[in-house]
Amino acid sequence: MGQKWIFVALAFLSLHNFSWQVKIIDNGLAPPEIVHTPVSVKPRCVIHAAPLDLIFILDSSGSLRDKFQDEIDVIRRIVRHVTIGETATRVMLIQFSGTQHLEFNFKKFTTREELLAALDVLRHVSGITRIGGAFEFALEALKNPTNGLRDASVPKILYLLSDGRTHDYPKDWEMVEVARRSIPSIDIWAYGTGNYVAMSALLNYTQDVSKIATNANLVGLERQFDPFHGTEICEKIPSCVKGSDKPVDLALLIDASESLDQLFKEQIRFAEERILNNINVHPDAVRLALITYSGQTFVHFKFNSNQFGNNTAVLNHLGTLRSIKGTTSTHNALRDTFALLNSSDPNDGTRLSVPKMVIILTDGHSARAPKEIAETMRAQGITILAVSVTPRPYVDEAELLQIAGEQSRVFTPRNAHEFEAELMKHVGFGCEGLELGPDSKPRVRGATDVTCNSNSVTFTVRTQRPMHGLMYAQHFHDIPECTVRNDGSSREVSITFYDGQCGLYKTPSQVSKKKNR
């Protein structure tokens, strides 16, 4: 019967503001963020378990067509119970009827999730039953070093799933003896499939009735494998905030002078599609300052701007920009940018320990060469990317190189396709030590998350600023397990309430009741 949660206690968050005044949105909660879950990355696990090489020999003959899923379920139960890993239990699976097929060897899958997924796609083969041929095939596969069998110090269990009724007697008995002589550390266990099991045959294979599981004693299946049930401590794969592993103070300079009047909209489009779409404007990720210039420099907003503290606000503002006309004073714009990046004024929002970067959109025709100030900035560790949407021969590529200092950081229509590859070196997204891969799935994460399992509900709240406060279930603020206090070290706080505590209880859902009628 399905369950649903009835939560009569509400969670409250008390926020105590810091001494300085900041203007934030009404409720103080964090704005939506684009996050990527690295689905291609496996969690790192610390495993402590006895090693085992486990070989399943799966009878897929025609007589067991209706029992095939029973056999698969037995394998699933064993895989879920033992500890899977390169240093723990490794699994090989052979499927047979009149012929044999190696579905996967010991090296193919190293996690429980991979093995269970592989079992989901196995299909019944049909045909006559040749258990002797299956044993012979398994022995040859085990002798092949490419299949990953470990040395004699590692126990080996050959696990037959069959009703024991074969068409190649006495080859089955003969091959069992050959296997025992060839691989001294091997043991043979069995699951007797169905209700009509040839127990004498299975007993001949295993030589011990306690190593035979049937439907009559299946409740003890997992206990047989207790010696190989160890511990697995796996890290939780995090949701990676785009840009959060490479925070940067980024100054975006846009040349709005007369020489670029016809291409100004192209510059804005480049900034929107090629820059903003690849960064996360966020207090903990990319802090952005926007500057336009011609003869004079105009700072639209600095690094600490709450009004322009997310991608949407910046994109909306970029759409309002117009060219200024006048001369091109790139040297002055870079000088003013340098001063902002070096500012210690908290109102400017520059972070001390965060890399600094400048992206400048210009055609390179400055009234005065910017070489000297650009060299000074780069000498202080500031990365500069110089971008022009102006085609040859109208772009001054030599000046762009003077600004960026390296040809790999100069971009014109000729090599604009390489821009993202360079940008992502400095503002790339992901989590430290992990690669997202091409199949990472973006989603929008809001200020609150509610997650449930069979006996608890977890609330997570994210705020714009690190918070001091108390989160608790209403009417239960004086019960320790119903409260959590945040000390101001994080913008995120979570609390978990368990069934029967803090006013939380579950009851059968009305939908499930109707289905069961």
UniProtKB/TrEMBL annotation:
The keyword Signal applies. SUPFAM superfamilies: vWA-like. Keywords: Signal. Residues 1-21 form the signal peptide. The keyword Ribosomal protein does not apply. Residues 451-517 form the ZP domain. Residues 53-237, 249-427 form the VWFA domain. Coiled coil: none annotated. It holds the Pfam family CUT_N. It comes from the Eukaryota. PANTHER family: COLLAGEN ALPHA, VWFA DOMAIN-CONTAINING PROTEIN. This is von Willebrand factor type A domain protein. It comes from Necator americanus (Human hookworm).
